[in-house]
Amino acid sequence: MKERVQYLTRIRVVASFAIVILHTFTIFGMAEQGTMSDSEEFATRVVPYLMMWAVPCFVMVSGALLLDEKREITVSRILRKYVLRMVLVLLLFTTVFYLLDLWMNADEWSSESVITILGKFFTDGSWAHLWYLYLLIGLYLMLPVYRLVAKHATREVLIYLGILYVIFLSLTPMLERLTDASIGFYLCTSSVFPGFFVLGHLIHTGRFSVKKGVAWGLAALGAISIVGLTMIDFGEHQDDMDSLLGNYAFLPVIILSIGCFLLLRGSGKNTASPRAEKLWSFLDRNSFGIYLTHLFFLRWLIKVVKWNPFETGSFWMLIPVAIGVFAASLLVTFLLRLIPGLKKLI
């Protein structure tokens, strides 16, 4: 691994575990809806919201790497290496998850199954977590444009762009949901993630930096806001609040994501011992596969084993479940990467 990206490895690994925690609490919360105590139900809501920083951090890591001016990235390379890889992974795992659904639902393969798989592939109709792969494809396709912006835009222009994203993709939707008003002004883009993409580049290059205390303050402000708003939503069951808390463009989520990225980045210097660096590198190489495969174990526990962890140890039991799922996904990914051809995909 190149010395300058050691901290990016750390962020990817920690974020991948945060994703496992997010989905563990979410999926068991959905499966046991109506049977949990108030504390268990609150935990299955607030913990996923608090883990939502993970996906923006993944995107910021991608921005830090792919917007690096030292990297030679042509349109041909983008299409052949990045986009094609994601398309193949999507098609492969859409098929695999369809077959797993057949097994877990005790259904049979039919003559229409191929058409169904293709339909799921084109419409994002497979398992929910694959949405991130469609996001990556969109970012990759726009990468030449983002690289031009990152290379030629001044710090002032990039900060200006970030402010526009916060106003039009975070504050405006929030006001519309809370007030039922339709604000006529809009920005000619539809996603907050390019903002995270560019922000990762700014932080990585040192064009955006804050003191450690400020980073802690951002993370704390985002987390406290999310917990407080979840308590309000839990008590009053406000649909608008729930849709905001589950939105990556929600301002507290943005603040929490930036704070977490900065804290995990640390000084940006390499301080890990050689042995620790090898472990981080091993986990990082398998992090994408962990993301792809972990949901299988959660679904298996619910649909096949039909296990209710709340009967064993309340919501605290979900922590060792998440650790076990992470470990199982790591093992499966390690084995899959031994298969010729799969190593380059996952």
Account of the protein in words:
By secondary structure, the protein is mostly helical. The protein has 16 helices and no strands. Helix 3 crosses helix 9 (193-205) and helix 10 packs antiparallel against helix 12 (251-265). The chain is globular. The relative contact order is 0.15. The model has no long low-confidence stretch (mean pLDDT 89).
Write the layout of secondary structure elements.
Layout (H helix, E strand, L loop, with lengths): L5 H26 L6 H13 L3 H13 L8 H30 L8 H11 L7 H11 L1 H10 L2 H25 L13 H13 L6 H25 L2 H7 L5 H15 L8 H12 L1 H18 L5 H4 L4 H19 L10
Helix pairs in contact: 1-2, 1-3, 1-13, 1-14, 1-16, 2-10, 3-9, 3-12, 4-5, 4-6, 4-14, 8-9, 10-11, 10-12, 14-16
Radius of gyration: 21 Å
Number of helices: 16
Order of helices and strands: HHHHHHHHHHHHHHHH
Stretches where pLDDT is under 50 for at least 5 consecutive residues are none
